Amino acid sequence: MVLVVLLIATMSVSVGAGAVPIPVETVWRIVASKLAPGSVVVDWTSGRENIVWEVRLPRIVLGAIVGASLALVGAALQSVTRNPLADPHLLGISSGAAFGAIVVLLHTGMFLGLVTVPLFAFGGALLATGLVLGVASFTRSHSAGRLILAGVAISFIITAGGNLFIFLGDPRAAHTVVFWMLGGLGLAQWQQLPFPLIALAVCGAYLIAKARALNAMTLGDESATTLGIPARRFRLTVFVVCALLTGSAVAFSGVIAFVGLMIPHIVRMMVGGDYRRVMPLSGLLGAIFLVLADIAARTIMPPQDMPIGVLTGVIGGLFFVGLMRWRRTGEQ
After folding, report:
1. DSSP code at position 74
2. How far is 216 from 80, CA to CA, in rounded Å?
3. How many CB atoms lie within 10 A of CB 106?
4. What are the TM regions of this chain, as residue ranges (predicted)?
5. Residues 179 and 302 sit within 8 Å (Cβ to Cβ)
6. Each residue of 66-96: pLDDT tens digit?
7. What is the pLDDT of residues 200-246, one digit of tens each?
8. DSSP 160-191
9. Rounded distance, CA 35 to CA 190, Å?
10. How far is the CA of 253 from the CAs of 65, 143, 215, 233, in angstroms?
11. Of 38, 103, 125, 191, whose CB has the highest number of CB atoms within 10 Å?
12. Is the peptide bond before 118 cis (omega within 30 degrees of 0)?
């Protein structure tokens, strides 16, 4: 409940922050007037109303959805791979989703309408997941560290393929694609939000409902099987669900790294390793983190927006180093 209140408060402050500061009270009154016309007296300018309703609120809502999605994916992957470093970015899933989106944006066009980018991003994420598992099986690299290496290798290959498609695409669209690859929420629109929101509602509900099975998977395949969980089939299902969730997030925000790595670890430090608490709290904390990161991205060098993926990359990289140091100290 505390995190829910904190998320609402953070989103309210975030909508008001920016090059044109707007009081939180005005933000809520504008939202109320949009949801229930005539419920409040309009004493603000149309410019402020457009900034709140058309520009900032969609990107804040998208940031919360993407943050929750990536954090849930990271927590689930860390369980089924029994790898504390598992993350959709390090395992190449985000790169696969980005590759699918690049193909649509630069070459095929939106021939299926608004669902084209999410569908191709999901296909790319699923392809990357399959390649990582295939490489791990082919090289018999089933340990935690080697699975990450397989993911990094696949990520490099897919990123190279994406760069080639950018090189071969329309140079006039390259700037937009590059900004999108760095991660950003500035292109958010109300009509796009139902897609990542539905994916989060369906896939997030599934992952949270399977918290007991995720607990069992952390004990190993044999222990999970003795508890009645078909370990291999369940792991494959979780990978597909995570690919769908990652693809829907990357399709509208670009590649935002390390959220899935950091947030589950922070939650475990707060409440322990029981996935019945880790999963929902990871979703809430991931949403809060990305909303806060978006405030920083919009205020560090105004009037320009810093790509949010750059910011999370710096924070995540430092967290990654700290995590390795902490684990090394714990092993000694």
Report:
1. H
2. 9
3. 20
4. 60-77, 89-106, 112-135, 147-167, 197-214, 234-267, 279-300, 306-326
5. no
6. 999 999 999 998 998 888 878 887 778 888 8
7. 999 999 999 999 999 998 888 888 888 888 888 888 888 888 888 88
8. HHHHHHHHHS-HHHHHHHHHHHT--STT--GG
9. 14
10. 10, 32, 30, 30
11. 125
12. no
> What's the pLDDT at 209?
94
Give the pair of three-digit tokens for residue 142. Answer: 């089933």
Percent of the chain with pLDDT over 70: 95
- CA nearest neighbour of 277 among 291, 266, 288, 289: 266
36 with 314: CB under 8 angstroms? no
Of 266, 307, 325, 309, nearest to 95 by C-alpha is 309
- Residue among 259, 269, 224, 270 nearest 79 (CA): 224
Query: Quick one: 315 exposed, middle or buried, by C-beta within 10 A (0-12, 13-18, 19+)?
Result: middle
What pLDDT, on a 0 to 100 scale, did the predictor assign at position 303?
Answer: 73
Q: Please, are residues 297 and 324 in contact by the beta-carbon 8 Å criterion? A: no
Residue 56's nearest CA partner among 287, 256, 305 is: 305
Residue 332 has pLDDT above 80, yes or no: no
**Are the CB atoms for 293 and 64 separated by under 8 Å?**
no
Nearest to 96 by CA among 156, 169, 182, 184: 156
pLDDT digits (tens, 9 = 90+) for 126-170: 888 888 888 877 877 666 567 777 888 888 898 888 888 888 877
Interhelix angle 259-271/308-331, nearest 10 degrees:
50
Is there a contact between 139 and 128 (Cβ–Cβ < 8 Å)? no
- What are the CA-CA distances from residue 30 to residues 40, 48, 62, 187, 294 (Å)? 8, 9, 19, 21, 21
Q: Which residue has the tokens 């760095």?
A: 182
- Average confidence (pLDDT) over 309-315: 85
> How many CB atoms neighbour CB 82 within 10 A?
16
Alpha helices in 210-307 (DSSP H): 211-217, 221-226, 231-253, 259-271, 275-299
Q: What is the pTM of this model?
A: 0.86
